[in-house]
Each structure stands twice: as structure tokens, then as C-alpha cells.
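Record format v2
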Amino acid sequence: MELALVRVLYRRGICPETAVKEVEIACSQVTTEEVYEEEDRIRHDIRALVNCIRAKVSENTKPYVHMMATSNDIIDPANAARYKDVVQKVLVPSLVQLEGVIIDITLREADTVQIGRTHGQHAVPITFGFALAGYVSRIGGSIKALKTLAAELPGKFSGAVGAYNASSLFFEDPEMFETEVLAELGLTPAECSTQVIPPEAMTRLLCEIAILSGILANLADDMRNLQRTEIGEVGEEFEAAQVGSSTMPQKRNPINFENAKSCWKIIVPRIVTVLMDQISEHQRDMTNGASIRTHPEIVAYAVHTAKRLTRTMQKLKVDHENLQKNLEMTNGGIIAEPMQLIPSALGHPDAHEKVRLLTLQAQREKRPLEEVIIADSEMQTYLEKMTPYQRQILSNPALYIGIADKKAKTVAERWKKKLEL
Amino acid sequence: MELALVRVLYRRGICPETAVKEVEIACSQVTTEEVYEEEDRIRHDIRALVNCIRAKVSENTKPYVHMMATSNDIIDPANAARYKDVVQKVLVPSLVQLEGVIIDITLREADTVQIGRTHGQHAVPITFGFALAGYVSRIGGSIKALKTLAAELPGKFSGAVGAYNASSLFFEDPEMFETEVLAELGLTPAECSTQVIPPEAMTRLLCEIAILSGILANLADDMRNLQRTEIGEVGEEFEAAQVGSSTMPQKRNPINFENAKSCWKIIVPRIVTVLMDQISEHQRDMTNGASIRTHPEIVAYAVHTAKRLTRTMQKLKVDHENLQKNLEMTNGGIIAEPMQLIPSALGHPDAHEKVRLLTLQAQREKRPLEEVIIADSEMQTYLEKMTPYQRQILSNPALYIGIADKKAKTVAERWKKKLEL
Amino acid sequence: MELALVRVLYRRGICPETAVKEVEIACSQVTTEEVYEEEDRIRHDIRALVNCIRAKVSENTKPYVHMMATSNDIIDPANAARYKDVVQKVLVPSLVQLEGVIIDITLREADTVQIGRTHGQHAVPITFGFALAGYVSRIGGSIKALKTLAAELPGKFSGAVGAYNASSLFFEDPEMFETEVLAELGLTPAECSTQVIPPEAMTRLLCEIAILSGILANLADDMRNLQRTEIGEVGEEFEAAQVGSSTMPQKRNPINFENAKSCWKIIVPRIVTVLMDQISEHQRDMTNGASIRTHPEIVAYAVHTAKRLTRTMQKLKVDHENLQKNLEMTNGGIIAEPMQLIPSALGHPDAHEKVRLLTLQAQREKRPLEEVIIADSEMQTYLEKMTPYQRQILSNPALYIGIADKKAKTVAERWKKKLEL
Amino acid sequence: MELALVRVLYRRGICPETAVKEVEIACSQVTTEEVYEEEDRIRHDIRALVNCIRAKVSENTKPYVHMMATSNDIIDPANAARYKDVVQKVLVPSLVQLEGVIIDITLREADTVQIGRTHGQHAVPITFGFALAGYVSRIGGSIKALKTLAAELPGKFSGAVGAYNASSLFFEDPEMFETEVLAELGLTPAECSTQVIPPEAMTRLLCEIAILSGILANLADDMRNLQRTEIGEVGEEFEAAQVGSSTMPQKRNPINFENAKSCWKIIVPRIVTVLMDQISEHQRDMTNGASIRTHPEIVAYAVHTAKRLTRTMQKLKVDHENLQKNLEMTNGGIIAEPMQLIPSALGHPDAHEKVRLLTLQAQREKRPLEEVIIADSEMQTYLEKMTPYQRQILSNPALYIGIADKKAKTVAERWKKKLEL
């Protein structure tokens, strides 16, 4: 930003070309160590930076360094540029990579029947690919939102209180001057700033990162639950030398999925810090001075989660045997839905209640629901009117997957194309 | 939603027209009391609603009520529709009204010089209209975001686990059927749902409401501080009979601005509840069953804040006398910025440090900064080279407002047009 | 509080006994409706209350109503008293009742062997009673903390800014006067107050309620997971007419345990509101005016959770068959710990690694770990040196429960006695 | 902890004395670098530590390293011990030092009259020492709470699921063995643990740190507001070379007080992470694996805040001139309270309303309230009945400080003694 400023000063005819060259060299040479040392002396971070740059240029160039700028004319656009950068060049690519891995599994397992679960209870069947397709769609949506929000981060070069007091001393068109300086960093100005950029654009970006983190945590929770000893439908791959527990040699713990959830616990509450930092009295107070410096950690935790989940999902083991075993676990209880729906459509006035009582009977008598239904005289009438496909479901619940397989493929292919994977 | 469903069932030729008419009447007659009574009996809210509707229709119509639907095929689109409604018809209009009031003050006070403040310390001058223009821009931006996010709330009618298991029994094109049902409520389907709509769209909307609430709280904080006894630049109007304190009869407390801040303290932490509710295991768990019912309170607090702030800002008293008094308070200290900038531009190698020492001298000797600067021999050279306007600032800091007045007007007029005020 | 004040004024000889009687009657007659009506007129809640009381007493008594008091001399002690009350008379008794129910199950199931789980993976055995004993201990500890914190809530009667300005006009010993007034409500004064009571005591109490809520949510999560279709070790009792799903008649959802978790999601983030409300500028600002009125909801949600969990736990079904089935699920993998520990103690230099490889072998070959161990020549030496009990564990992992049974009983009995159950 | 374990194994006769010596040396030699390297290989932190220790001892000693321990038998007590340590040896001493500095100012300024403020509006007078005494009391209370809570942090050595499965293989009294091991670190066992220590004690400690941080932020807010240009009652000392703004040389910003508030914004939301980490499924999950590692940052920010505030308060400048100027600012408006109270006590039936109207008149006519009161015929009667002291207040509001001066001294002296300062 200090360099961008001098460049535009030159283009505007305020300073000679040598000033640009000197500042360019000075900026490339200045070290964080010397800035910290100067800050220790004068207790002001940006003035310390300015002093260090000025110490490296000629007397003639000195006046043009930081000219007209207040500290946040430098800090705020620099922050906007680096958040934009990290989102566009690190976070989004990490997510696209993760998305690619999940899309691959979605396509591969699009037809793998799995019992659908609500409330942790067996509901009706889906496919494992379909279960993942939901995450393809949700992560995809968040990638799109992140791209838009990062691109919208504005800059400012409007001086100490946002009214262009300083630049107005030198230019008829201080807003145009601001536009030119910010363009050097690929930014456009905020519509109206104070000493600082209005915080909303950044707040929205960080909120979206928290939302993204929630999607990843949800995926991790699902995988972790599917890895429970009793369910065993998926598993994190273990390396040959990997230890699961310091005392129980048999343990294979879902530590990577647990980690994604734990990072979410770090990120989400910090959104409150971000929302608190949104408020700044009058033309700015600095009660966000320390806290705003912790916001980049939110991005870092999100990037970490994405990368670690990518590695973990890449090696995800799907246990088709257990998937099948679990599907059969309820002895056909999972066909209660079609068995009440079809009679309803055929005119039964209260099929839901009828079938509810039959499922209770099946459980009480430990018999397959199919058997109990067939034996029931009232149901008989409706069974006779069913189509062959509807009758088949009764014996083979795996047929009752709706359009899970097709949907998994459509969603996966759509995002593959959108993200150019 | 129950009615929308039957309407499309009829259009699809599944049920007769009489079913639509009967359900229409039943829905208009069903009372919350009877639904709660039925819920007490069967412990399921939507089934209770369904039973109540069914009790009011003929045996022939009964099977078509709630046909193929899981509870959240009803609840979730209904919620999407009512949040969309309340944002579009209540929250946004309240904000537009508030925006109108602030725009009026901005235009009226666009030229009213006020000392700009950073860190609660006098910085350089702005105008009071300019101070408000920042809020016009920020609130305007949030109104825009709220409109977009509300319009994007999706619906779903994809059954118990999102795979259209039930509707696939009856339709070749269950996704088209879903689209038709949702269109009845002005909604479009989520790309991929489970038992529930993916929560991100709603989460984004509620995050934006928290962000909006932060802007309003910031405005309220500013006004409240300007109302401090020692500052006194603005004041909430007091009614003739209004009591400020039960023991101190002279008190005029900024209770309405305090209220806006307090509502922000209610809203912001609840975003964590919203972000927690984003996670739902597998095709859904119901650990958000109670908490999701508190989210509408977030909207209510935001609407309340907007309405109360509107009333308060409408009657805001601006004390021009105190504005002037405060501007003069630092004895010209606020011109230190131009007094270092101009010499810098004229070639002084370290004008910032030079003027810093002069301000210390002025404070020590309790003399106007102007006087100390004029008396300084080094500064003399630069004073001589200044333009008449630059010299004028030295005696009259009120001239050093940059483009505050112009900017206030531009921003206010732009939003007036955008919001058709 | 208004009555307490007049009582002490009388005892101090400031007002006649008739004043006490008149205020006593007035206080018993004043209605919320009339106070709200008056508040609408004068926009001050406590002054409205005072006016309503005054309107019901004679001219002679009028001056003594609210005499020397600032609003928060009334509000704050009243709040302290009612929070103390609700904790001591509602929340703690609800928790004691819940604790009683859990203690009963703990004792009943103290010897019921259950597989212990870490990371959702089978670890080594415990008993179901032992699993609950941890909650007995944790809830017990929170009950104790709540009692202490509620008893410590202080009061104040120190006037508009806490310096006893008003009461000093009339008394030599205003602090003693404060002590006497507060004693009427069973409170003692804060060491030093402003217009308000220092918020820390209340904040600590509300934090403890959030902590308690976390314990209850943890218990609910455990029970909910044990109720998964694949685990099935416990179940919420379903009533005969109860509906689990509006479309899947077979569903038995853990809605009560889900509800406890959901209430926790409501409570926990609100602690941030409480912590925000802790800050009040100078002798008080009122940016907590609205938010502080939502704090009682935290108590209400906690009471609700306790009561609902009590009802649910009372009817908890424990499925001993599934407990046994799950215990055997890993084919003896759960004895890896003792099988590495005993050889270690017998001098094996790296038994953990040895047994880790054997568990991998057993899983690969789908053989019981016992079999693989016995067949291993290196292990042979150690097997021979084992005590009979240690050998027995190899065949019967259910013996490897440590002191789970004994501990469950001790902890349960200890709290039964402490809470006089 | 690894050493503590071997020591007790020796005392119990399980291992030879040489094992203790070898482990002692090994523990003193093991480096973090080598542990991290081993962790990279086996992906388990504590097993890596164990391997590194084992690599440094003889074959004979190897089996006793980590014997019977699960990872959290090591991690959890170690954490308890280090949190206890940092609170007792770093945080509390920092706070005691800060308390000492505030006590000194409190005593020095106990008689310095300052206008009391509520809602940011002038209320009735106090003394500056009294304003600080409130913080002496609140910080003192938090120091006391921190000491208690740190001392109460429990330990555990109960094995993989808390049931002493492993240690029961070797000892009749595994709980006594646990007590002995923990005693080596100055800890006592939790009443009942799982794989981990029940989290409540640590959660309470961290909540108290958030509460403490709120007290410090409140103090910082007060000081920062008193430093506003228009109020100017206190100021942070500026060093000779210190720069306030990179563009406005005259600025003296309250950056240290702003920093304390900013640290509070970091700390408070993280309490939600702590409360989230309280929940761990069954005998433990590890969804707190990453997040629990950020909790020590909470302590670090609190220590930083305490130390920085100490330095800032040590150099706090109190401006007695501005204190006096502000006291007189309302032209006597601040005596409205005694002027309504005394007539009330003398029998005026509605003195509050009477004086409220007089203050409005005084403001309207820009006359001192004293003058308006004296000129009012109705007030005349009451003025005649006032004591000389009561009459004096009318002319000299500085007399109306209640017992602020005395209270400031009592509170300060009490804590000076309690904390042995």
C-alpha cells in the first residue's frame, strides 16, 4: 500500500519517478525485525513501518512516504487484499480439492444402498452416494458464496476520519485518487468509510467461513458416527504403524473426523468476537486492536480442516458388508412408510395408524414386518391391488430408495462441471 | 403447505377437486387449540395438525391429506415462506423507514461541522451529516443483503430422507412435483435436501440480521456518546411528563439508544445457537427441536430495534451550539494534520515529528496551536509558501472538512433513489 | 422491597406505623396492569410502580414510599431475591429429583456389564450403573455449586451512585440501614455497589446453570446414542398412542433426549449475553436494559430440561440382551489392554506393540483375539505365568470391569445420603 | 506424571529403585523435538512421549514406563497441575499487583470529588477513589474465586474408561493407588472419572477468568471514557517519543485501555468453546482434541491484560482541574435529588415531580438550579426547615457525596490487608 500510494503520487505528478524507485527498493528491504524495534521505541506500528521505509530513501523522497495517509489507509486495504488472497488462493482451492474427493466417492457409491437415518433411527433407504451428494451441494454453495464475498471486500484511502481531509488539500477529486491507489491492489473503495473500512463485508466473509466449517463438521460427525463399532459402515484408514490408544492396542479412533468437529468448536464462537469488533465508536475506536489480529486464525483453522478432511476422505473405507447388514437390521421395519402410503392412495382412510399398530405387533412378536402385513386380513385387500414393483418393496426394502441413485449422480456431475473438476 | 399439496395432487389427477375444496375449508377452520390438544394426546406436532384437518374432511378426502409428506415437507417450506415474508414485509420496510429518517438528518446536517473523533479523542473535523452518511451506506447495504438472502430461502418436498422415496411411488418426476408444490408458496426447491432443507440459506439470513443489528448498535452507541453531559451534541427528545430517574428529577437518559445496544447483546450470541443448529446428524437429528423455535425471536428483536430507533432518530435534537463549542475545545490542536502535511508536500523531511513537538509545546503552555506554529521560525518558511486557503485553515479548523459535506449529500441522495424514498 | 423499606423506616422512627400498614395493603393491591398503564404515560418502570403505590395510600404516607431509593435499590435486591428463590425452590429440587432417579438406575444396574466406549469405539468393559455414576457425581457437584452461588447473591440499598448520598442525609449509619432493609428479604449487602449490584455473583450463578445444562446435555447425548437402532442398549418409553413420525409408522425417536441437547444450545450462547451485561460504564449504563430481562429464560430452560429428563429417565428401558450382544461384538478385541498389560508387568519389553499386531491379525483373519493370542508362541510364555483370574479374562471379557460395579454403588450411595434422598 | 507413576510403582514394590532413577533422568532429557518426530511416525502424542522415554531407559525399566496408564491418566493430571500452577503463580500474582496499584490510587483520591454518572449523564457526586473502590472489591472477589477454583482442580488415574480396569489387575485398592500417584503433583482424584477428568472444575475456572476479564474491561472502559477529549478527567501517560497517530501529531489515544477491552472480546466468546468441550460422548470422544489446546490462550490473554493494565494504571494521570470543571457543568442540576428528598422527608407529597419541573425551568432559562429553587415560593417553606448542612448542599454540590470518601478508604484498606499488600 505504501508503494501503491507513491506510484499514484508519481502518476499524478506530485513526486518524481525516483521516489517510486526508492520506495520500491526500500519496501523490498524493510524487515519485520526492524519495524518491531522501531515500534518498541515509538509505540505505533504503522508510523514505525513508515519510519523504517523513510530511513532507506533519500531526503527528497522522504516527504512522499505515507503522504496524506492515516495508518488505516494502509492497514485496512492491505488486510482486504490479503484476506481476498488467502480465500481465493488457499481456502477455495482446498475446498475445491475436498469437493473433488467427495464427488468421486459420491459417483462411486451412487448405487450403494444404505439405510437412511433420522433421529439416529433407521428410517427408509437411500444410497451412500446420495448421503454424500448433500455435502457436495452444501460445500459447493459455500465455495460460491466465499468467492463472491472475497471479491467484494472493499478498500479505502479516505484519511483520518474518512472525509478525505488530507487528500482534499492536494486534489480536486480525492475519491478518484483513492480509486487509483486501491486499483494497484485490485480493490475498489468502500462507498463511505471512516478511519476504517466499514466492517460488514469482512464480517460476512468470516460468517460464511463459520458456516462452511459447520458443513464440514456435519460431514465429519456423520462419518464418525458411521464408524462406531456397532455401525461400521465406513472407516478412516489406519497406517501400519499407527497407534490408536496408548493402552488399548486394538483401537482405531476416528481422530481426523473428531478434529474437524473440534476446529468447528474453535471457529464458531469466534464469530461473536468478529461481530463484537463490528462496532467502533464514532470515526473509530480501537477496542478491536488485539481481537482483530486473531481473525486470520479463523481462516487458518478452516484451511486446516479442509486439507485434513481431504486426506481423510481420500482414504475412506466403505464397508459394503456392514451397509447390507444394517439395512436388514430392523427386519423390514423400514418399509412401514410405503406400506401405509400405498393403501392410503388406494383409499384406506387411516393407513398410518393401521401400519403403526402392525409394526408394534411385529416388534412384540419379533417377526418380519412383511410377514405380519401379509397375515393381516385388512391389508390383504390392498396388497392385491399393488403393482408388482410395490409388492417387491415388501420383500426387498433396498428397492425403496426413491431417486437417491440418480440424484447423487446429477448433483455430483453438476458440481464437477461448475468447479471445472 | 397441506393445502398446496392437495392442490397439486388434484392438478396431477391424483385426487378429485372436492378434496381441494374440503381441505381449503378445513385449513381455514382448524384452530391452534385443537392441534395442541391432539398433540398432547399423540406427542407429535405435525401428525396432530394432519389429524385435525382429516377430522374436518370426508372419508374420501382423508387419504390425500399429507399424502407422501414427511413432517418437514410441511414445516420447512412453511418456515422458509414465513421468514421470507417477515423479512420482506416487516423487517425491510422498518429498515427502509429508519433509513429515510437518517437520510433526512444527513441532508439537513450535511454542512454542520462536527469534530471527527478517533479513540474518543478529537481528530480532524467532519460534518454531522457525514457521520450519519456512513450509517446510511451501511444500513443500505444490509437492506440489500437481507432482500437477496430472503429471496433465496429454498423449500423442499422430498420426503422422509430427501430421496423422494414416497413421491417416487406415484410420480415419474418427483422433483417436478416438488417444484410445483413449492411454487404454491412462491418457493423453489433446495438442490439437495435430507429430511430437512439444508440450513445454510437460513443461517446466512440470520447472520445478516446479526450484522444489521451491529450497525444499529453502532449508530446507537455513537448517539448515546454524543448525548453525554460533557459532549451534548445530540439528545433524545423527552416528553413533558417523562421521568428520567426515580430519584434524580433532572436526568435525561438515552434509554432508547441503550435499548438498541441491549437488543444487539441479545441477538449476537444467539447466532451461535443458529450455527450450532446447522449440524444435524445423517438425514437429520432433532437436537435443534427447541432451539430452532427461538430463532424467530432474533427477527423480532431486530424489527423492534429498527422501529424504536426510527422513533428516536425522528425526534433527535442536534445542539449546534455544543457542536461548535466542542470543535474549539482543543485550541486548534485539530489542525496538526494539515500543518504537517503541507510542509511535507513542500519538502519538509520530517514534518510529522516537528508538529508533534509543537502540539506538546502548545499543550504545555496552554496556547493555541496556531500561535505556537506562527511563532516557530522553522514553520515560518512553510507558512509563507501556503495557499490562502491553506493559511485560512490555521485560523479556522472548520474549513478542514475535506469533502465531508459533499459526500454526505451524495451518499444520502444515492440511497434515497435506490430505496425509492 | 418497597414494603421492606417502609418497615425499616418505621423501626428507625422516620415514619409512623400507619405508613407500614398502608403500604402493605397498597402493595398487595397493586396490579401489573395499572403499573404498565402508568409506565406508558411516564416511560419509567419503577417510578410507575411507586406512583401506583402512592395512589393507594394517604397523603401522610406518600413521602415515605420509595424514600431515598433509586430504582435499582428496588429492582436489584428484588431480582437477587427471586433468582435465589427460583434456584432454591424450583431448580435445585428439580435436579435433586432427577438425581434421585439416576441414582436408582445406577444402583439397579451397578452390575450390568456394558462395553465402555471411547471415540465411539469399543474400549474395555464397565457397567451401565458405572456409566451413570459419573453423572450422579457431576450433577451432584453442580447442585452443590448452585446452592452456594444462590445463597451468595448480594443486595444493595446504596442510592443513585452507590455512595449512600440520599440515605446519608437521614442516617449516621447508612450501611447499617441498608443491612436492615435487605435483611427483610433475606439478603446481605454487596461490599461496594454503584447504582447497581456488582454483577459477578449473578454471572457466576448463570455460568453454573450453563455448566449444569452441559452435564444434562452430555447425559442426553449418551442416552440418545445408546438408543441408535444399531446399538439399542436403552430406549425412551413410548406411549401406546404415541406417533414417532408423520410418515414412518415404525419410528421411535429419542425426542426427549434430543430436547435436552437443544435446550443446551439455547442456554450456552446466552452466557455471552450475560458476560456482555457484566460491563456497565461508570456508575451504570443501561445497555443491559433489555438483555438482562432475558436472563430468567436461562433458568426456565434449565428447569424444563431437568423436569423433562426426570420423566424420561424414570421410564428408561434398559435392553440387557443388546448390552450383552454389543459386548461380544469385537470378538474379544476389547481384552487387548489386559493382554498387553500383564505381559508388560511380567517383563515383556514392548507388549503394547506386540498385542497391537495380534489385534490386526485377528481382524484380518476374522478370528477371536483369544484364539490368536493362545496360538502365538511368544505370548505362550506369559499366558503360563498368568493368575487364574487373569487367564479367565481372556475367555470372558465381562470380568474385566475393574471396580466399576463397586464404584457405581459407592458414588450413588454417597449422593443419596448427601442429598437426603 | 510418567515419573510420578514410576515413583509410586516403586513405593508399592512393583518396580526396582533403578527404574525410578532411569525414568527421572530420561524425563529430564527428553526433548519436544524428538517427541514430535515420533508422533509424526505413529500419530499418537502420548505414546510418542512414552516411546521416547522408553528409548532412554534399560530393557528392565521399559515395562514400568506408562504402566497401567491410558493417555489421559498422564495428560489430564498434567493439565490440572499446570493450570493450577499458572493461576497460582502467574495470574493471581499479576492481579494482586494490579489490585495494589488500584488500591494506592483509591486511597490517594479517596477525597477527590467527581461527578457520579449513570447512563453517561451526570447524576450525583462521588469521589474518584470511590469509583475505583468498586473495582478493588470486584477484582478482589475474583482473585478469591480464582484461588479457590484453581485449588479444586482434580486429577485422575483411573485408566481407559475410568473404572480402574488396568490398575485393578495389580492392586486391591486402585483408588488409593490413584491418590498416591496424584499426590506427587499435589492433586486429589475426581470423585468419578471416565477416560478423562470430569470437565466441570476446569470449566468453572475458565468461566471465572472470563468474569475477571469483564471486570478489567469495565475498568478500562471507564478510564477510556474519562479520557475523552471532552471529559479529560484521567489520561494514560505518554512517553516523550510516543506517537499517537501516523497522521495527526496531536493525538494521545487510550490504546492500553482499548487493548484491555479488545482482549475481553477475545476471551468471552471462547467460553462457548469451553462449554462446548464440556460434552464428551460416553467414556469420552475427542471432538475437543484441537479446541482444548486453545484454552490456555484464555489464561494468557488474561495475564497479558492484567500486566498491561497494571503498567497503565501505575502511570494514570488524574486531572483535578477537569474533575472540578465537570462537577460544575450542570449548573447545580446534580442537586435535584437532595432537593426533592429533603422536602419529601419534611412532608411534601410529590417533591420529585415538583423538582423535576424546576430542573426543566432552570434548563429552559439557563439559570443555576439553586437560584430557581430559592426563587420558588413553594420550595421556600422547605428551605427554611432544612439543617445548615442541607442548605449548604444547595450552594455546594461537592458536599453531597454521601459516604463515598469513607467507603473508598474502608474497602481499599480491607483488601490491602486481605491480600497482604
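The mean pLDDT of chain D is 95.
The radius of gyration of chain D is 31 Å.
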